[in-house]
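Propose amino acids for all 298 sites.
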């Protein structure tokens, strides 16, 4: 039976899991409800200070993992949340419950962001139901490990790029007319964009594209006062892991970084808060590395 705990108990980080039971889900992007242990998305010791009071944030993939943790942290800071999700309604409903717990509004939009009209659907929902868009977090991704580039089919390649980078273009184009000076766009890239991965060639390529997209878009929007940055996580315990890796690989996931464990989603979320608020008013076109100590060339 899956562990249903998703709140940090306040133990020292060294006490967080450094290995996981054998498990595998058969379909991406996977669901948190079947994971053991369940990803920890909320740190009760994190107290908000209204840094995002009155703002509206769209968080793609906000139904689970990093996206859900960001939704919780943003809500603690006073933001209302829009969560586009693909199929994981139970996970999305859990995000709504957690955001509402902190007195903020949260709406969900079931859609496929690989299709451009879905992006407009999400933005319209944000504007019509919550009053606008101030922060856009592009966060969705899929990955399909293959031992050789020869095993990457055209279908897989198109799906990976459509999800991991083309959807970021669609969401940004749809949101941009509503963003204003002081708004923020935050893209999720990956440590694999910098160090590569022999079994995640197409995934790593999309994450490299996210880095270039971030830097170029930041230059394009700088005169409008809209900041664009990215976060490059290392290994993080999310449904993507149990729905893409083998049972054996899951058991040792994250052990190859200097801190010798995978991050929990709540440990990544404060980086997004920083990039979404005036704390980072002089930061644009940058990638922040939250990866357990992996040395990268940025």
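Proposal:
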């Amino acid at each position: 039976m899956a562990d249903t705990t998703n709140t940090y108990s306040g133990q020292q980080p060294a006490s967080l899991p450094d290995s996981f039971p054998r498990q595998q889900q058969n379909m991406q992007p996977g669901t948190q409800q079947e994971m053991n242990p369940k990803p920890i998305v909320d740190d009760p010791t994190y107290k908000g200070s209204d840094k995002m009071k009155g703002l509206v944030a769209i968080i793609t993939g906000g139904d689970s993992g990093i996206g859900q943790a960001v939704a919780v942290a943003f809500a603690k800071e006073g933001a209302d949340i829009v969560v586009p999700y693909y199929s994981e309604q139970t996970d999305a409903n859990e995000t709504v419950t957690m955001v509402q717990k902190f007195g903020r509004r949260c709406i969900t939009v079931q859609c496929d962001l690989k299709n451009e009209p879905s992006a407009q659907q999400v933005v319209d929902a944000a504007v019509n139901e919550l009053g606008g868009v101030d922060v856009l977090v592009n966060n969705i991704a899929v990955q399909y490990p293959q031992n050789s580039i020869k095993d990457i089919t055209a279908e897989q390649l198109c799906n990976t790029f459509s999800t991991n980078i083309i959807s970021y273009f669609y969401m940004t184009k749809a949101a941009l007319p509503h963003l204003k000076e002081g708004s923020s766009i935050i893209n999720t890239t990956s440590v694999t964009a910098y160090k590569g991965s022999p079994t995640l060639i197409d995934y790593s390529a999309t994450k490299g594209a996210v880095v270039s997209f971030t830097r170029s878009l930041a230059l394009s929007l700088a005169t409008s006062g809209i900041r664009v940055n990215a976060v490059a996580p290392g290994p993080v315990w999310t449904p993507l892991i149990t729905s893409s890796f083998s049972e054996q690989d899951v058991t040792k996931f994250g052990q190859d970084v200097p801190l010798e464990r995978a991050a929990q989603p709540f440990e990544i979320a404060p980086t997004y808060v920083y990039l979404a608020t005036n704390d980072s008013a002089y930061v644009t076109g940058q990638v922040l590395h939250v990866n357990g100590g992996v040395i990268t060339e940025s």
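The beta strands are 56-59, 80-85, 106-110, 135-138, 184-188, 227-233, 287-290. The longest strand covers residues 227-233.
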